[in-house]
């Protein structure tokens, strides 16, 4: 170092010892409420950005017997005063109007660090100095507090959360350990708020993580070892679960573009006795596992943009779970994914997918959607359509293995089929949907490029002929193929039972019955004493249920059982499940008591239609029956209470009319016309003067 033109040589060992001493002192200083600015904070950070109010008071050097000026105000604005008055000034005029981000407060500043516009006379010194904020990320100066909040939010949306100055990480005492599926991760106290922490961890997404793990376990059973990527690691919980349970079957890579998140991922790897591989070198913490044996499991941790890491390397399994939509990463994901690999993506932009922000869905997915009774399946098909177009641009087709839309997320798992022929076949399944706004009947548009003279003819309903104006809207483009692969779902259920994933098992059973479009009567939970049952982890599943198309998943009891089960399963899988579903409450008749949902499913099945429940809606019914037949069966087995506003009271069915008899078509038409008039005008326009049982007896 040089001082007054004199060269002073300091030994290298002494400099290293001083650096180590400074690093050891910083955690102890961060534990206290008052931070030493000269040691903790570099010089390029503005003095208006502090963690605690005590930091501002320390800048002012408050003393009871001396007058001190405000460190953030010029002398002409605030004169020097005693400590009690200066404390109130700092608290009320600087600290309370600050903007918080990641534990720091950007206080309002009145110093001459922001250039001001000159007045009309050209004299800049006489113009009033304006208050402003200093951005903690890009060091920009913003005048208004609301503009500063919007400025920070734009940084967060772009993924720019790193400071321009080095910060002191929180002490380890402030971390807490969360355990999920035998995996421990360290998170911050505000881990559930993605805007205020780098280690974002959402406990509500546990079901999502279990479904993805089951899909990866099925792929690991097909071929091993497989290379899998968690493109947005955050805490690394998902990649750690993969490596801890699947062991040598997978080679896990966890990526994140945030430096703090990468540091937390490394610490969580060491917490779970895993080795960390970074830049082709292994960092081992030297700890042992079990009876002193060293763990051979290694996780590769990378710090780069997700698009970059997917462009540079090839993977067998890729999972995308960004904050919001994942369409920005689809082209990179399908560029280098291997043939017959799996790409899974979780979309959390629920407001746009569930038709609350339709313009955002049009911008992100290129899809026109409206709020319907089947809006969750509409969202899943819109995401799959975007995935199909991205895969087709890379000459790849897809096979949809799983599509789940719940309250907080939309999960789509697809298998990649390389080649132009699968790409063309997948692209042909992206079509538009014709949706009737009166009766909510829907049908996919027919294939072909010819323009239809009257597209309303494709709808099974006759609303266009009986109602004035345009009655239908064109939605899409949407995926028109199947949403589930029955064999893959059964193998996922087998993996969920094997690893004890209790939350995923009920959902997977519902998905299997929904994929087959049958009632869930082929499998159930039984006692251990039942015969002809295959047991896993306390859950006993019928052995014949796993025979087809899941190869080798059940034990053979007899040749007759095998042959009968295989024949029945082949017949059931000859056709795909019908698209979309109906909500039984949405189409119920006013003044009628509906049958129970399970009984109604049996009634539709006895009428010759395929029927099942759906995970999209707890009161939804997936069936291939037209809407008119659906309403007819619902009306047939509903119990009427009273009809008409002028009836004296509830009118019960007479003895000669029993529940289950066919209701006259004229009564159904009258009730539906009354409901339509009431829904459109807000007032019951149709008044029925004669009671329903009297009309039935007369007819």
Automatic annotation (TrEMBL):
Pfam families: TRM. Keywords: Isopeptide bond, Metal-binding, Methyltransferase, Nucleus, Phosphoprotein, RNA-binding, S-adenosyl-L-methionine, Transferase, tRNA processing, tRNA-binding, Ubl conjugation, Zinc, Zinc-finger. SUPFAM superfamilies: S-adenosyl-L-methionine-dependent methyltransferases (SSF53335). GO terms for cellular component: nucleolus. Residues 1-31 have a biased composition (Basic and acidic residues). Signal peptide: none annotated. PROSITE patterns: SAM_MT_TRM1, ZINC_FINGER_C2H2_1. Residues 135-155 form the C2H2-type domain. It catalyses: guanosine(27) in tRNA(Tyr) + 2 S-adenosyl-L-methionine = N(2)-dimethylguanosine(27) in tRNA(Tyr) + 2 S-adenosyl-L-homocysteine + 2 H(+). Residues 1-39 are annotated as: Disordered. InterPro entries: SAM-dependent_MTases_sf, Trm1, tRNA_met_Trm1_C, Znf_C2H2_type. GO terms for molecular function: tRNA (guanine) methyltransferase activity; tRNA binding; zinc ion binding. GO terms for biological process: tRNA N2-guanine methylation. It is found in: Nucleus, Nucleolus. Belongs to the class I-like SAM-binding methyltransferase superfamily. Trm1 family. This is tRNA (guanine(27)-N(2))-dimethyltransferase. The gene is Trmt1l.
